Amino acid sequence: MEKQVMIPRQKVIREIKDYFLIGLGMMFYAIGWTVFLLPNDLPSPGVPGLASIVYWGTGFPVQYTYLGINGILLVLSLMILGWKFSVKTIYAVFVLSTVLPVVQSLTEGLSLIHDQPFMACVLGASFCGGGVGIAFSANGSTGGTDIIAAIINKYRDISLGRVIMLTDLIIISSSYLVLHNWEKVVYGYVVLFISGYVVDQVVNASRQSVQFFIVSKHYEEIGRRINADLHRGVTFIDGVGCYTGLGVKMMFVLAKKRESNTIFRLIKDIDPHAFVSQSAVIGVFGEGFDRIKVK
User: Fold this and answer.
1) What is the number of other CB atoms lying within 10 angstroms of the CB of residue 2?
2) Quick one: three-class SS letters along the chain?
3) Mean of the pLDDT values across residues 203-232?
4) Among 5, 35, 257, 268, which residue is least crowded by beta carbons within 10 Å?
């Protein structure tokens, strides 16, 4: 009975933590965009980049352009990624749209490293990339090309940062139509590469696979949950404890690295005292992983 009460409570705490992290990520993104990039006329990737172009060309507030474009992309998110990812993304878009004017008003007239565009580029990209990475780690995003990256990543094992980088090149290049300054465009490319790298580092998007060896008395329940929640296969292996001499059941699981946190959460919910070994593997080939490529 106690176990049935604890699991929902842990899920509620987990969801609260996710929403807190998404809000924190949007704070980082807002600071990077409005404090370092926008005042120095440095292009940024994604929908914020489009909003920046509109702002430089017309003076139209960036938060309204950002909100409008994301409305269309969020419809695709609901259709493909599901309501859980989309709800958190809608929350992230709302928070960022709300925080942007606040940060702009608080930093109005403030000019940080105005005469050092490269440092502004590095700091702005680091804040933005870190914000996006934090949001992704909590199963959310800032919307825009992050949604496109998440859709592609759902079907292909491609780095999130790499997908964002490829889809944003044309946006940064088009900023020349307003800025008429190729130097600024080059700085925009630097922003793109740095932010993409930071995203990968934050969400551990090396995309390598991992293997788990799990010893638990609740092996059947853990195995069923891994099958149902992650759609990953579980192999039960009979073993004997050397010290106790008793028979044990050991589970062997192969999964993507991005799924590690979910597996640990699942195990902790069912059996906090389980013995778990995790290790990285060079490659996994077969159903649900990479294809065997041999000529």
Assistant:
1) 5
2) CHHHHHHHHHHHHHHHHHHHHHHHHHHHHHHHHHHHHCCCCCCCCHHHHHHHHHHHHHCCCHHHHHHHHHHHHHHHHHHHCCHHHHHHHHHHHHHHHHHHHHHHHHCCCCCCCCCCHHHHHHHHHHHHHHHHHHHHHCCCCCCCHHHHHHHHHHHCCCCHHHHHHHHHHHHHHHCHHHHCCHHHHHHHHHHHHHHHHHHHHHCCCCCCEEEEEEECCCHHHHHHHHHHHHCCCEEEEEEECCCCCCEEEEEEEEEEHHHHHHHHHHHHHHCCCCEEEEEEECCCECCCCECCCCC
3) 83
4) 5
pLDDT for residue 168 is more than 90: no
- pLDDT tens for each residue of 52-92: 888 888 888 888 888 888 888 888 777 877 776 678 778 88
What pLDDT score does 204 carry? 57
Model pTM? 0.63
